[in-house]
Amino acid sequence: MSRASPEEIRGALARLRGAGHRLRKRRAREILGSLASVLDSWRDPDSRMRRALRTDFASATGLAPAMVEAGMARALAGWTGGALRSLVERELGGIDALEGTAPRCVSGFEVTSVLLAGSLPSPTLLGLLAPLLLRSPVLAKTSAHDPVTAALVADSVAAADPELGACIEITGFPGSDRECVDALLDADCVVASGSDETIAAVAARVRPPRRLVSYAHRLSVAAVGADPSPDAAARLAEDVALWDQLGCLSPLAVFVEDREQGEAAAFASDLARALGDLQERWPRGAIPPPAAAAIARERDLAEMRAASGAPVILHRGAGTSWTVVAEADALIRPAPLHRFVRVHPVSGVPGLVEALKPLRRHLASVGVGGFADQRRELARALLELGASRICSLGTMQSPPLSWCHDNQGLLLPLARFCDIEL
């Protein structure tokens, strides 16, 4: 995609506003039906979109095609057209609210800009479809980490519904281009993903009555009780390996209830074996030199701590393919990603909560194994820490369509509501 100019972005917004006038004259049920068919088409592993992800997306990101296919199969397993219809009912009160025939009616904004920042295809898919469901045209800036998916989404929408396809345009430019960013932020609703610094910069430039929907830096962890299932380590290894640990749902650390001061180290050993096995099935993709250097540095530091007498154990695969560090304490340390995970001992739920406090501003998903008699207590504690999803090990990378990303709904932040009291 060629680099856009500010004039081209303003022109795209003008076209989309015109297309939006026509879009809002259509029945909401028609739009929902078209988008449901788009979701269903993406779930087909033989579809053009999925084939392109295995080739073009894998080539652009360096991820292994087998891993990309496995990740998409997990991510889209429950993202059906029926699930989309249920989401409308759950968050908006039903399709009648979108049609304007319910006591509480709902609409989208005249036009929505979406600033994409991630490296995974599934968030991009949902991020572009959600405003369209509210009959709000979309102008999306591609992510520097994923130059492929946004265009595939636009093409799939146009194939299912050409008129709806005219309501989505894709643009690209460096995030440092202030004039282009300002032009993009002129939309009535702005959806932005990125680092805390990026979100703060966007928030300073998007003022009411324009709407800002932001998704800042998030990370995930796993918690393992004293009674995990026999396959807990293998299931968690899949959560770590999928997408090479680059998504916000990828666990960066594991906290193991260590009643007898040996369970955490044993679990780390099991996890290491499972990651080694997965390297054959889902090989880790290529990584940039700085990432490889960060992994080497953290490995060296772990070995130095072990040599000085600390009960730290380093498990490593060939090259930088995977790394497991069995830590001696629950102190949060740097996570280089790319299948690098630390295993920390904790003393039950209170110890876990104390260990996670430094992460409370950024906590996304928590994968849980064990804690059979403490799950209610654990769930309440994690909720207080700000977690937006608590799930079983092995399902961290396959959230339902309706999960509360960043403690928000998918459609609610994009919607305007009106109560009809006549």
Description:
- The protein has 422 residues and is α/β, with parallel strands linked by helices.
- It is built from 16 helices and 14 strands.
- The strands form 3 sheets. A 7-stranded mixed sheet has the order 9-10-11-8-7-12-13, sandwiched between helices. The chain has a 5-stranded parallel sheet with strand order 4-3-2-5-6, with helices on both faces. It has a two-stranded antiparallel sheet with strand order 1-14.
- The longest helix is centred in the middle third of the chain and has 19 residues, at 263-281.
- The model has no long low-confidence stretch (mean pLDDT 96).
How are the SSEs placed, and which strands pair?
Layout: H1 6-23, H2 28-42, H3 48-61, H4 65-75, H5 81-92, H6 95-99, E1 104-107, E2 112-115, H7 121-133, E3 138-141, H8 149-160, H9 162-165, E4 168-171, H10 178-184, E5 189-193, H11 196-203, E6 211-215, E7 219-224, H12 232-241, E8 251-257, H13 263-281, H14 289-307, E9 313-316, E10 323-326, E11 340-346, H15 348-356, E12 363-369, H16 375-384, E13 389-392, E14 416-419
Parallel strand pairs: 2-3, 2-5, 3-4, 5-6, 7-8, 7-12, 8-11, 10-11, 12-13
Antiparallel strand pairs: 1-14, 9-10
Major sheet: arrangement of strands: 9-10-11-8-7-12-13
CATH class of the largest domain: Alpha Beta
CATH superfamily of the largest domain: Aldehyde Dehydrogenase, Chain A, domain 1
Using the alpha-carbon principal axes, give the shape: globular
Number of strands: 14
Strand content: 15-25%
Q: If helices are DSSP runs of H or I spanning 4 or more residues, what is the number of helices?
A: 16
For the sheet with most strands, the description reads: 7 strands, mixed
The CATH architecture of the largest domain can be named as 3-Layer(aba) Sandwich
Segments where pLDDT lies below 50 for 5+ residues? none
Helix content: 40-55%
Provide the CATH topology of the largest domain: Aldehyde Dehydrogenase, Chain A, domain 1
Compute the CA-based radius of gyration.
Answer: 22 Å
The number of domains is: 2
Please, what is the average pLDDT? 96
C-alpha termini separation = 50 Å
Structural class: alpha/beta
